C-alpha cells in the first residue's frame, strides 16, 4: 500500500457501498455529515471485530469482566471527570474561505492551509453533545451523551469489584457507543460524531503501573496482527510529555497506515488514580479498594487500552484489500476468516441435475451449525467466485457432477485458490476446523 493514497480510500468507500458494507446515513435526504450506516456485510464485519475483542479481553481471561453501562449518566460525572471544563479542541476559522480547522492539526496557525487566508484566534470548543432529560428543556434537565465509555466503568468500580470479588490487578471491559461533536469529522468512518468504543480499564497496584502499561501496549498491538493486519502497517507512538492529557502519566497510540497517512487506531494510557479519586471526592463515596493483605485502603492505578470498533473495522478492511493484477484486476478482500462477514458460499455448478437440491441441503446444514453462509446459483461459476472474493468470503463449496456420483464437493480457498474434495457429510467439520485455525 502506498504511504498515502486518496484513490485507495475512494475505492474502498465505493466498494463498501456497492457490496453493502457501509452506506451514508439518511442518504436519500442528501446524507448526514459524518454519520454512516453498516449494511448486511458491514454489520457482520463489525460484530466480528467486537466479538474478537471481547474474546481476547474478557472471555479468554480470568482477570477481566465486562459491563454495559448506560449512555446517559449523572451530569456530575462529567464535572468530576474534567470533561465539562476540559474536553475541548482548539478551533480556528479561516476569515477568508470560512473553513474550520483544529489548531492542533495545523503546522502554521497563522495561515489557512486551504486558501492562505488569515485565521481567527483559537477558541476552545467543548466536544460533548447535550440533550435534555424529561419534558422541560432547562439547565437543570441538561444531560450529556457520553464522550467515552470509560466513565461508566469508573463509577461502577466498587460495584463490580465487590460483586465479582476481584483483587487488583483486574480489569473491567465495555463496548458501546460514544458521541463527540468533532470539529473536523472525516476520512469516512475514521472520525465520526457517533462511534463505538471498545475500552478496558485495568486496575493495578500503583507500584506495578509500568509493567502493565508495557504489557497492554504489546498485547494490543499483537491483537491487530493476529487478526490479519500486516505488521509493517502498524506502529506504536509514545506521546511526548506536552501531549499528555492532564490525568495521564504515560500514553501511547497504536497507529495504522491508513490511505490518508499514519493515524491513531487505539490509545493505551496510564490514567493513574485520577478518575477514582475525582469521583470519590465529587460524590462523597470513596472508591478506594480495601486490600485484605495489607489491611489498608488504596486507589489503584488504571491502565487503559481504548480502541474504536469503527476505526478497527476500517483498518481490517483496508489492510485486506488486494487486487490481482494477473487476473483482470480482480478484487480480493483477504479478511481473516474470523472477521469475514460470510464464512462459506455454497454454489451448485449448474442450476439442474439435482445440484441445487444437494447444495441447498449443505447450505441448510451450515446454517444449522451457526456458520454464516450464502447460497448462490446465479451466473457462471467464475463470476460467483469473484463476487465472493470481493466480499471477503474465505471458502466456497461447489456441488458439481462428481458430487452426484460420489457425494463429495470441492472446497475452494480464497487466498490460495486451491480446490480440494471433501465428503459432503464432512463439510461442517472441515469448515469449523478451518475457522478455528486448526489444520485439517
Ligand atoms: P483522536 O486523537 O483521533 O481524536 P482520541 O485520542 O481523542 O482520538 P481516545 O479518546 O483515546 O481518542 O479514544 C479511544 C479510541 O476511540 C480512539 O483510539 C479511536 O479508535 C476511537 N475514537 C475516538 N474518537 C473517535 C471518532 N470521532 N470517531 C471514531 N472513532 C473514534
How does this model look, in words?
The protein is 31% helix and 28% strand. The chain has 440 residues and is an alpha+beta fold. It has two domains: 252 residues, 2-Layer Sandwich (BirA Bifunctional Protein, domain 2); 94 residues, Rossmann fold (3-Layer(aba) Sandwich), CATH 3.40.50.800. A hairpin with a 5-residue loop joins strand 17 and strand 18. The chain is globular. The model has no long low-confidence stretch (mean pLDDT 94). The structure holds adenosine-5'-triphosphate (ATP). The site of adenosine-5'-triphosphate has 16 residues, from strand 10, strand 13, strand 16 and helix 9.
Would you summarize the structure shown here?
The chain is an alpha+beta fold and 440 residues long.
The distinct ligands, each listed once, are: adenosine-5'-triphosphate
Q: Under CATH, the topology of the largest domain is which? A: BirA Bifunctional Protein, domain 2
Mean pLDDT: 94
Could you say which structural class the secondary elements and strand pairing correspond to? Answer: alpha+beta
Q: Give a count of the beta strands, DSSP E runs of length 2 or more.
A: 23
Shape: globular
Task: State the CATH superfamily name of the largest domain.
Answer: Bira Bifunctional Protein, Domain 2
Number of discrete domains: 2
Computed CA radius of gyration, to the nearest angstrom: 25 Å
Q: Determine the fraction of residues in helical runs and give it as a percent range.
A: 25-40%
Strand order of the largest sheet: 3-9-10-16-13-12-11
